[in-house]
């Protein structure tokens, strides 16, 4: 039971990362039916940009960890968001109707970002500043760090904000309209390309947020960090029902918990297999996921 | 395969029987309790205003949709809910409302693909080009040209399908359907988008198809085409069959006139 | 006519002269090109002919390699007897992974195959009977009677034999009932069904044939290197094989050969630039899709892809108005 509870706490933390990244997959897929293979690497870029900002702030002797983190988050999220838009404009927009070509272009985008980080930063692990330590709450043998609470709470706030934006604002309505019928939305005066670009921006912003927090949580980052977590976040999106925003959040947390439990009870070496096995089983048994309404099979 | 037309067909005299066909999409009922029978070697048209559920009926018959309820019988055997390719093998071929060819493949290849179900070469035959495969390919090429000549496209055999004129594309789609050796051919608005000359040719072609012993069932909007070649006509209105008869009867039927004239604005 | 046949003639000439006049290093490079030719031809059946994006193709390569390696090392089977077993196992794993997933949208298939590739790699790394991260070593050389195939020349000839078999098979497939069914499904699945084709079966066939080709390449790879480990069967390996056929031109057999040669020799020639290799790969993939989606030596299938891309680009260039007209006509 102790193990289970502790793994639950860890699972919720990792799940928050999965959920934040899964949102990017699900929004882009919902609108242009593209599995954005580069999305995991967008997250990695967010982590690295955050690290650069921390480095810069340390150089200018900004010592306050909260202020530094806020600046790192904002700058990284903004820049990464723009990078996401750039990726869409350059690599995807000209290929929107070519199914195979756009997927291959997405793989190209993924490799470009990964090895761009490799070249610009480092082929080995980089260390994030230790700003928040391990302090936190203890209940029996279960430990919850303040950082974990911060990650969980801030992710929930961001996701709620996204949900409200999609469901309560005009631009959100345009996004939903686009997801249902692109041509109809266009006829209704929606600037399709701009809304798609905005979707990429939002997805990338959330990924960058996850990236910086990952750096703080695991205290080290590498240029390939986005590959595996990207796959798993996609799994989370599929698990929850791709195209469905609450689904991505649910899927993310669920996957995080399942994986942590598997790591706690079996062996962490096999935990990645758990994620992929879930992905395959879900796609076979219930391709529309837990909350998905649309039947995704065929067209 | 042809032996699959036992007693019941003889009894009812129908090639195809649709009984109580209902198709709902979520809350929307597209077709409600449609029932009709197609007799051997006749040309039967289904007409009705837009949204009357005609294409839905066709999609149910050809296996592209699984009806909510109802029964479809072809040559005495139920084909309800069967896969499209299996229905083709039973002897029903179709064309689409919006032409669906293989646009980047050759005209001849389009027809040859229609021969798929009549050839047997398997994976190893295809991999090794066994004598059996070679014999079959030679036969397929002959058969292809036979159907291309039948619809009058043999001169264009080496073009790509997308390079054909619109009317020719329609005829190519019919040739591909004929290549599957159907006993029932289903045409979904074959005359739409055609000019008068092309329509006249189409009427002629459909007549020749029937003369070749193939039953023809089609949806059409163009009344000159419908009245010109149909042996019988069925009228659907919002999924419900409102009339059935020979062209003269249909033209005089008050419910048909109301269904059409009352909603002419929707066309 | 001449310019069409000249490159082919040159390729044949190089292929014949290389084992006679080449240094052992050059012959080994040639052998590696042939391995990628086999892999490329196999993946070409899946991606080029049937239009299914497989991102875990290295998994089948791995299954073939491990089958041969383990049977030869642990059970002392002769190389030739391991071949049918490898073919059988790869076909079986192709069926197991393909049957449930091939009904899904093609992009879902891409991600499932990616997951499958990772599972196989992780399993090979973690299981004990596969030798864990160290893999299997001391794999014996294949023999024909008393003659042991050990020299670079002998291995080159063996690779050439494999490659030619696969090449002839691929060529035949493209001009067969099976090949037409694939083309039809690629072009328009509903129309293919209306023509009497059952798409799921033919997709599975493409997937299984591709798996078997990769398995054969894996078997050869094991005896050529005499030692294998999981690092040869990563996602990057799958992408590299994909790059072979995209670079050459999807569906195009000369394109696959050209692509394999470029993919193997470019990094060899640019060893100094190893750091930028994968980065350049990434940029190259995007650029290729934007500028020349049909590849260096395009086939008909490549032309189709190029037209779709061109239409897509044109509708964007023409602005939203034209786009709307095009899609609502």
Would you mind describing this structure in some detail?
- Chain B: Keywords: ATP-binding, Nucleotide-binding, Transport.
- Chain A has helices spanning 2-32, 39-59, 65-92, 99-120, 146-168, 170-180, 182-187, 192-218, 225-240, 245-265, 271-285; strands at residues 126-127, 136-139, 142-145, 220-221.
- Chain A is mainly α.
- The termini of chain A are far apart.
- Chain B is α/β, with parallel strands linked by helices and 267 residues long.
- Chain B folds into two domains: 1-91 and 182-267, P-loop containing nucleotide triphosphate hydrolases (Rossmann fold), CATH 3.40.50; 106-181, no CATH class.
- Chain B has helices spanning 7-12, 54-61, 84-90, 107-114, 123-128, 131-151, 166-179, 196-211, 223-229, 247-252, 254-261, and strands at 16-25, 28-38, 43-47, 69-74, 77-78, 92-94, 184-188, 215-219, 232-237, 240-245.
- In chain B, the strands form two sheets. Chain B has a six-stranded mixed β-sheet, with helices on both faces. A four-stranded antiparallel β-sheet of chain B has the order 2-1-4-5, covered by helices on one side.
- Chain B is globular and about 60 Å long.
- Chain C has two domains: 2-298, ABC transporter involved in vitamin B12 uptake, BtuC (Orthogonal Bundle), CATH 1.10.3470; 299-329.
- In chain C, the strands form two sheets. A two-stranded antiparallel ribbon of chain C has the order 1-4. In chain C, strands 2-3 form a two-stranded antiparallel sheet.
- The chains are: A mainly alpha (299), B alpha/beta (267), C mainly alpha (329).
- Chains in contact: A-C, B-C.
- At the A-C interface, helix 4, helix 7, helix 9 and helix 11 of A face helix 4, helix 5, helix 10, helix 12 and helix 13 of C.
């Amino acid at each position: 039971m102790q193990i289970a509870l502790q793994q639950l706490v860890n699972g919720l933390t990792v799940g928050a990362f999965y959920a934040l990244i899964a949102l990017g997959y699900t929004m882009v897929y919902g609108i242009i039916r593209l599995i954005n293979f580069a999305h995991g690497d967008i997250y990695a870029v967010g982590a690295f940009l955050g690290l650069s900002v921390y480095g810069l702030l340390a150089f200018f002797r900004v010592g306050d960890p909260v202020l530094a983190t806020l600046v790192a988050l904002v700058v990284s999220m903004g820049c990464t968001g723009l990078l996401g838009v750039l990726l869409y404009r350059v690599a995807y927009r000209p290929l929107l109707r070519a199914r195979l070509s756009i997927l291959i272009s997405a793989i190209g985008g993924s490799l470009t970002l990964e090895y761009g980080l490799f070249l610009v930063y480092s082929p080995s692990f980089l260390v994030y500043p230790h700003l928040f330590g391990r302090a936190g709450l203890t209940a029996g043998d279960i430990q919850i760090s303040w950082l974990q609470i911060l990650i969980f709470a801030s992710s929930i706030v961001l996701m709620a904000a996204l949900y409200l934006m999609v469901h309560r604002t005009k631009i959100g309505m345009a996004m939903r309209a686009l997801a249902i019928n692109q041509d109809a939305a266009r006829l209704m005066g929606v600037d399709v390309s701009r809304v798609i670009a905005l979707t990429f921006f939002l997805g990338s912003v959330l990924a960058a947020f996850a990236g910086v927090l990952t750096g703080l949580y695991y205290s080290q980052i590498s240029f390939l960090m986005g590959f595996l977590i990207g796959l798993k976040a996609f799994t989370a999106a599929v698990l929850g029902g791709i195209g469905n925003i609450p689904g991505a959040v649910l899927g993310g947390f669920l996957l995080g918990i399942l994986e942590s439990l598997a790591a706690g009870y079996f062996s962490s070496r096999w935990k990645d297999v758990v994620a992929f096995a879930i992905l395959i089983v879900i796609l076979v048994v219930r391709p529309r996921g837990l909350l998905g309404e649309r039947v995704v099979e065929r067209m | 395969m042809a032996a699959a037309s036992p007693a019941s067909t003889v009894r009812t005299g129908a090639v195809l029987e649709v009984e109580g066909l209902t198709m709902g999409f979520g809350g929307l009922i597209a077709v409600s309790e449609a029932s009709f029978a197609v007799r051997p070697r006749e040309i039967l048209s289904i007409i009705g205003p837009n949204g009357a559920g005609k294409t839905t009926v066709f999609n149910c018959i050809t296996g592209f949709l699984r009806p909510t309820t109802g029964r479809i019988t072809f040559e005495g055997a139920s084909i309800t809910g069967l896969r499209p390719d299996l229905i083709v093998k039973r002897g029903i071929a179709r064309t689409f409302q919006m032409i669906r060819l293989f646009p980047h493949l050759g005209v001849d290849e389009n027809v040859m693909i229609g021969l798929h179900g009549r050839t047997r070469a398997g994976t190893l035959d295809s991999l090794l080009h066994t004598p059996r495969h070679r014999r079959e390919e030679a036969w397929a090429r002959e058969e292809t040209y036979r159907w291309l000549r039948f619809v009058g496209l043999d001169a264009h055999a080496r073009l790509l399908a997308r390079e054909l004129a619109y009317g020719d594309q329609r005829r190519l789609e019919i040739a591909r359907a004929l290549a599957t050796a159907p006993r029932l051919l289903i045409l979904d608005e074959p005359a739409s988008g055609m000019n008068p000359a092309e329509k006249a040719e189409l009427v002629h072609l459909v007549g020749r198809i029937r003369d070749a012993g193939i039953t023809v069932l089609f949806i059409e909007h163009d009344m000159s085409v419908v009245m010109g070649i149909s042996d019988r006509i069925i009228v659907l209105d919002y999924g419900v069959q409102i009339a059935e008869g020979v062209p003269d009867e249909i033209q005089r039927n008050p419910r048909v006139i109301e269904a059409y004239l009352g909603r002419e604005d929707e066309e | 006519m001449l310019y069409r046949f000249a490159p082919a003639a040159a390729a044949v000439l190089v292929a014949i002269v290389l084992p006679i006049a080449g240094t052992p290093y050059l012959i080994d490079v040639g052998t590696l090109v042939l391995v990628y030719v086999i892999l490329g031809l196999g993946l070409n059946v899946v991606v080029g002919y049937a239009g299914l994006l497989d991102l875990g193709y290295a998994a089948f390569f791995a299954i073939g390699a491990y089958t041969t390696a383990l049977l030869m090392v642990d059970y002392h089977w002769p190389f030739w007897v391991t071949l049918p077993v490898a073919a059988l196992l790869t076909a079986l794993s192709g069926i197991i992974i393909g049957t449930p997933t091939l009904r899904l949208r093609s992009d879902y298939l891409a991600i499932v195959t990616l997951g499958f590739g990772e599972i196989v790699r992780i399993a090979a790394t973690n299981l004990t009977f596969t030798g864990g991260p160290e893999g299997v070593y001391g794999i014996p050389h294949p023999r024909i009677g008393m003659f042991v195939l050990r020299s670079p020349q002998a291995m080159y000839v063996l690779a050439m034999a494999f490659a030619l078999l696969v090449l002839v098979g691929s060529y035949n497939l493209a001009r067969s009932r099976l090949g037409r069914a694939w083309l039809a499904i690629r072009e328009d699945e509903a129309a293919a069904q209306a023509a009497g084709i059952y798409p799921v079966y033919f997709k599975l066939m493409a997937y299984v044939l591709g798996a078997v080709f990769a398995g054969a390449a894996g078997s050869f790879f094991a005896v050529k290197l005499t030692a294998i480990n999981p690092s040869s069967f990563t996602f990057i390996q799958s992408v590299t094989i994909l790059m072979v056929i995209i670079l050459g031109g999807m569906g195009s057999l000369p394109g696959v050969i050209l692509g394999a040669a470029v993919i193997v020799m470019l990094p060899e020639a640019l060893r100094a630039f190893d750091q930028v290799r994968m980065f350049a790969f990434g940029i190259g993939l995007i650029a290729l899709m934007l500028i020349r989606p049909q590849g260096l030596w395009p086939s008909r299938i490549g032309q189709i892809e190029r037209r779709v891309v061109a239409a897509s680009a044109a509708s964007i260039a023409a602005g939203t108005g034209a786009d709307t007209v095009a899609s609502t006509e």
